[in-house]
Design goal:
elongated
Amino acid sequence: MAFTTDRVMSLRAVRQLRRVRTFYAGGVLLWAVLTAWTAWQLPGSRQMWVSALLLAVFSTLLLTASLWLQRLQAADSPRRPAHHAASRKATAPRHAHA
């Protein structure tokens, strides 16, 4: 019974990490644009450094979430049964024993 509970918790964790990863990717994109804009308008200003710091924070969070997701998926993959297709090799004709 613990196996199915672990599997459900793993699926929930993967689903949540995918959502969080998407959110962090949006944050990285937003802060990259804002950092570039601020660096263009006010190079070396405090606003630029704060924006660069927030870009670094979101990048770190995105990297961490991606690594956790990769580890969860790698840990989950050996549990799945392998689905092998039937052999296409022609079988030998069967003979009845006398």
